[in-house]
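U., I forgot to send this yesterday:
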Amino acid sequence: MQLRIEPDPAREQFVTDQARRYEIAVAYDELHAYKAFCDTRLYSVIVSHDNISSERQIPDYRWHVSVAGESYLPKWADFVAIVQEVRPGVMFCVPMPPRQFWLNVNPNVLHVWEIRDEPMTTQWREEARATHAGQRAGRIPGSPEPS
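Result:
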């Protein structure tokens, strides 16, 4: 896959204006918009550092990345590559709230949010280590050790 990401100043200004208009708690110096080119596909990417705390006096800023296709849902491989390029090393999850909490008006966008659930991230790290160790040993993950 060929991936190229370029700043999109016009989109960034539009998103910043909308965030201010609707009083969204975001770190404006950490709100960015990009155009991402994956092979022949074009995506609009928004990266923001949002305060998700219900108590504004104690901020809790989390990374939020949205990737939208022009008229198509992003391919999973493209989505992952873009997110890892714009915020490398951040532990993300794909939210799946009940339908009554959905806000998205664009059917062609996927979102990820930074997660700080220590037991979950520890589990992911440990499972990855075990899986990688098994792959290096030539085992299929979950299969018993040969005797």
